[in-house]
Amino acid sequence: MAYQLERVDLQAPLPEALRTTSVPVFYATTREPAPEGATGHYVNAYDKSLRLGIARVTLGEPGWTWQDLVASDRTGSTAKPRAGRVEGVEEIGLVARENAQSKAEHAFVERVNARLAEVRNPEVVLYVHGYRVTFDEVAVLMGSFAHYLGHGAMVTFQWPTGLNFWSYLTDCPRAEREVPNIERMVALLAKTRAEYVNIIVYSCGSPLVAQALARLRARHPEEGREALARRYRIGNVIFAASDVDLKTFAREYVPPVMDLARQMIIYYSRHDAALGFSSLVAGASRLGRPSIEDLTVQDLERLGADPRLQAIDVTEVRGAHEQGGMRGHGYWYANDWISTDVLLSLRYPIPPQRRCLTPGAGKNIWKFPEDYDRCLEEALWENFPALRRGP
Q1: At what angle do helices 135-148 and 336-347 cross, to 10 degrees?
Q2: Is residue 3 predicted with pLDDT exceeding 70?
Q3: Containing domain of residue 195, as a range?
Q4: What's the confidence (pLDDT) of residue 315?
Q5: Does 124 fall in a domain?
Q6: Under 8 Å CB-to-CB from 335, ≥6 apart: which residues?
Q7: Span 43-99, pLDDT tens digits
């Protein structure tokens, strides 16, 4: 949606050399490589090895130019996803099991640094997906996000998951084994020259990241927030439609994540059918579809005390809230307004009121106003002169 604003040009800061339809997406995966002749590049079977590499993602239809891609930004919508494909992958190597940094990890850091040297926003975004997605789908989705973010370095952590609805009952619990790998990847990205390492996590990828960050915090019990900020440089941590127990998250994960991150943003919806099902299975409400009565007064007071923690209620935001899948679960990429706020939160980590959000029903709870699109154009025009289109 932000790319369709008349007076704002979010691509203006992009160097000429990067005005291309091709985007590199870095990855770490425990999926097995696809056998010769199979569709895709990695399959959904589990590989005990952690593989690092780069996917070459092309956005748009075959033969499109940069001008075609930009034109589609201004005329397209999330209701009709733009075409994209993984042209190929370059596997950098396998991560050794020992604690010392492996040759593959060293090479991975160097390739990320080379990418950061090309851009004007030297930041890394790490994405951890939910279930029922293929390797190529995740790579293309985050290639599109890299395009909208002014490139930078996009990294995906990809764990194996099946494509059936019932895969939820097996794949999400099995994914707990990925927590040490995610912890290792966050620590590895801190060794790059990124100004900040931002993290976005979706659905049942959320407990994996929450646990990984808690483990990372526990490595340094003697260090305070400032020392941890220098060590890991974690910027925004964004939880979207998160399938993690609300009480556990509030009591066990919020404190260590807030010690590590510059700010935490939680998107939630009371109409999320997938998390309604998950709550029924688990017997407890989920972060992405919370029942506030599950929390004590003390919990709420503690969560409301730090303005760096933002809970954004997207229940009533007009427009699509899914692209296939269960009703109301994919809003963070399916809805123009919500995906715009996610992008702005990653690229310009400004407070919610400067992103045109308005106070909701509780402290640190925010919502979208009815005139969000008009307000956003004014806010970007006023706050970021480099993005202005025309006089």
Answers
A1: 70
A2: no
A3: 95-129+149-387
A4: 97
A5: yes
A6: 78, 314, 317, 319, 320, 321
A7: 999 998 999 999 999 999 999 998 898 888 777 666 677 889 999 999 999 997 777
Q: Are 264 and 239 in contact (CB under 8 A)?
A: yes
**Residue 270 near residue 246 (C-beta atoms within 8 A):** no
Residue for token digits 């933002």?
310
Token output for 160: 């194996």
Instruction: Return all residues near 303 (Cβ < 8 A) that are at least 6 apart.
Output: 250, 254, 295, 309, 311, 363, 364
Q: Using an 8 Å Cβ cutoff, are 220 and 227 in contact?
A: yes
In a domain, 39, yes or no: no
Cα-Cα-Cα-Cα dihedral sign, residues 76, 344, 305, 252: positive
Does 120 score more than 90 pLDDT? no
Closest CA to 52 of 118, 125, 104, 9: 104
d(CA 145, CA 125): 10
Supply angle C-alpha 152, 156, 158, rounded to 5. Answer: 175
Residue 8 has pLDDT above 70, yes or no: no
What does pLDDT average to over the chain? 91
Of 164, 136, 159, nearest to 207 (Cα)? 159
3-state secondary structure of 52: strand
Please choose, from the candidates 105, 91, 95, 322, the residue with its C-alpha nearest in 3D space to the C-alpha of residue 192.
Answer: 105
Domains identified in the chain, total number: 1
- Give residue 108's region: left, alpha or beta (phi > 0; psi -120 to 50): alpha
User: Is residue 17 included in any domain, yes or no?
Assistant: no
**Does 291 fall in a domain?**
yes
Q: Greater confidence, 226 or 2?
A: 226
CA dihedral 63, 68, 74, 79 (to 10 degrees): -10
CATH of the domain at 108: 3.40.50
| DSSP category for residue 274 | H
Mean pLDDT score, 347-376: 91
Detail the DSSP E strand segments found in the chain: 22-33, 42-59, 84-94, 124-128, 153-158, 197-202, 234-240, 261-268, 309-313, 358-359, 365-367
Tokens at 148, concatenated: 């909208």
Global confidence as pTM: 0.95
Q: How confident is the model at residue 151 (pLDDT cuts 50, 70, 90)?
A: low
Query: How far apart are the C-alpha atoms of 314 and 239, rounded to whole Å?
Result: 13
